[in-house]
Amino acid sequence: MFSSLDELVAPDGPALGDILEDKSGNFRTAMEDRLTIDEIKSLNLTDREKAVLSCLLKGCTAREAAARIGISHVMVLKYKKAIIKKWRRKRLPKE
């Protein structure tokens, strides 16, 4: 279980925050600094989103995850964006 966005997914691998970071906004200021895999798994992810997340957590790049799952790297990025959107919806207070 991960307790921080800065915790490495694998030795010499990326941090959880690097995997889930949304490059279009300031991710770290919008989110709390604590996160667990259980929180992400409780988001009612689709099977494909779970497969993408699993590959990314193993340290795969978008292209490597795409090859393993059998989809395009663009779809991997879209699934990643959907995961982030679901997580934000759960984590951010409603306005």
The overall pLDDT average reads: 75
State the share of residues found in helices, binned by percent.
40-55%
Give the biggest beta sheet: none
How large is the share of residues in beta strands? under 5%
Q: What would the CATH topology be? A: Arc Repressor Mutant, subunit A
Describe the structure.
The protein has 95 residues and is an all-alpha fold. The protein has a single domain (16-91), classed as Arc Repressor Mutant, subunit A (Orthogonal Bundle). The chain is 55% helix and 0% strand. The chain has six helices and no strands. It has helices at residues 16-20, 27-30, 37-41, 47-57, 62-69, 73-91. The protein is globular, with a radius of gyration of 13 Å. The N and C termini lie far apart (30 Å).
Summarize the structure.
The chain has 95 residues and is mainly α.
Which helices and strands appear, and what pairs or packs with what?
Blueprint: H1 16-20, H2 27-30, H3 37-41, H4 47-57, H5 62-69, H6 73-91
Helix pairs in contact: 4-5, 4-6, 5-6
Question: Which tags fit this structure?
Answer:
95 residues, Arc Repressor Mutant, subunit A, 55% helix, 6 helices, mainly alpha
